[in-house]
Design goal:
This protein is an alpha/beta fold. Helix content is 42%, strand content 13%. The chain has two domains: 231 residues, Phosphoenolpyruvate-binding domains (TIM Barrel); 49 residues, no CATH class.
Length: 312
Amino acid sequence: MPQTFRDAKWYRSMLYVPGNKLDWMLKAPKYGADALVFDLEDSVAVPEKAAAREAVAIAINELRTGAFGRFVRLNGWRTGFLLDDLSAIVIDGLDGVTLPKTEDPEDIAALDLVLGELERSRGLPVGRIEIIPGAETAAAMYRIYNICMASQRVKRAGVACGPAPGGDGARSLGINDATEEGIYFGAYSVLQARAAGIVHVEASMTVQLDLESVRRINERSKRMGATWASVIHPSHIPLVNEIYSPSQSEVDEACEIVSAFAEAVSRGEAAVRYKSMLVDYANIRAAMGMLKRAQAAGINVSDIPTLDVPAY
């Protein structure tokens, strides 16, 4: 049976913004991130969470017409805060939520049900709000495939090069002081996410502020299958957007490959020589995917022929 991939809007960068800083949230779009994540979890102290929910709801409403994505990082299940979070922020303009400390598929299934009830009661399109699971323990990382399969709302998952040193995931795996070893766990994470039909794979997040570290981690994550990254500082956004955007030379070559193949198809052929390689449908699927990402990134793509490309 052919694998079904979950389509979703392409984001290269997601900027985290503290949910208790309304002025920061309202000015965040100017930095150029493809999506914003208003944080109600770790960046908000417990006494401030109620006020932060109100501030996040105001920000979503004020920014609801922006072309960027609007996400909220919730407090996890078993904190006593999650239902209050959802009640406050599931409104028109919300594109998705991230669920930290996801432990098992039941966490996602339960969140899916609650979101559906809120969408129905508030007249919102049912099923539109995405869920991004945060697998931050060894048990959760082991179950990524089943976590992704628990809801069709999950369209982004995985951590390409594994958890960053110093975080909850690294501590859970016992590699808290490691810098390179996490890549083995990241590869397993990508494999599970892709097997579940997830094509939007997250890079390993860095808490380092220097751009050299950001570039190194994201270029390595991209080689491991990442398509986007979360960032904690606006200065990271231009670099991350550059790394996860196709280059102009890549776009030009993809256009040439598609055009050459279209001519071959018109002659009744299903393969054609392009420069030093033989191009068939597998190459065309890759080229078409490249052009789709380029268009999402705002890169001008010349007219390309229409092709009927089999999924496999």
